Amino acid sequence: MVQSRHPRAPSRAAACTAAAVLLAVPAVVGWSSGATAAGAPAPPAAAVLILPAADGPADPEAAKKQIEKNWTAFFDPKTPTDEKAELLQHGDLLKLLLNGFSAGAEAAKTSVKVTDITFTSPTEGTVTYDLSVGSETVLPGSKGSVVLEDGVWKVSFETVCELIEASGAEAPPLLC
Cα(154)–Cα(145) distance, rounded to whole angstroms? Predict the structure, then answer.
């Protein structure tokens, strides 16, 4: 193993890279350091670079539509287990859990109504929903999480574990 005489070299390299990126921004957007070419307009006195928000997907309305559709289908007792697996984070690995989750008389009467969706990042969000069994709303205003996996907005594995815990049922060992 070779030891560096400069233990802070990696952080210096990162700082230099960050500085280079920051210094390149004016050139990319057509600003200069104050010197202007003949006939070129001078840069504004105080320029502000506006970047897109990093707290949601590029098309939030389309994402919300897909989330509501997928969330509702996931909790619909008529949705086949294979299709539910496609709507659950890591669902391809959790078909056994889904079979157990869908079993029972109560599950056959379960439905959800999505009431709100907020994004916490371009690939994650919080879903507020009402969970009903038959005509009774048993978990009003519940919160769950949604994740973008392989281009599909899916119910998070964490949400399913929270629902299993809230039901009093035991999750299979090592799953939740």
Answer: 9
Angle at CA 141, nearest 5°, toward 139 and 143?
Answer: 95
| Tokens 């539910």 sit on residue | 84
Residue 157 near residue 90 (C-beta atoms within 8 A): yes
Q: What is the pLDDT of residues 72-107, one digit of tens each?
A: 999 999 999 999 999 999 998 888 778 766 666 677
Kindly state whether residue 176 falls inside one of the protein's structural domains: no
Q: How many CA atoms lie within 13 A of 157 on its CB side?
A: 13
Domain with 2 in it: 1-51
Question: Is 112 inside a domain boundary?
Answer: yes
Q: Please tell me whether residues 34 and 103 are part of one structural domain.
A: no
What's the total number of domains in the chain?
2
- DSSP tally for the chain: helices H, then strands E: 5, 4
User: What single DSSP character describes residue 91?
Assistant: G
Q: What is the pTM of this model?
A: 0.65
- Cα-based distances in Å from 143 to 25, 52, 54, 122, 138: 40, 27, 22, 18, 13
At 145, the amino acid letter reads S
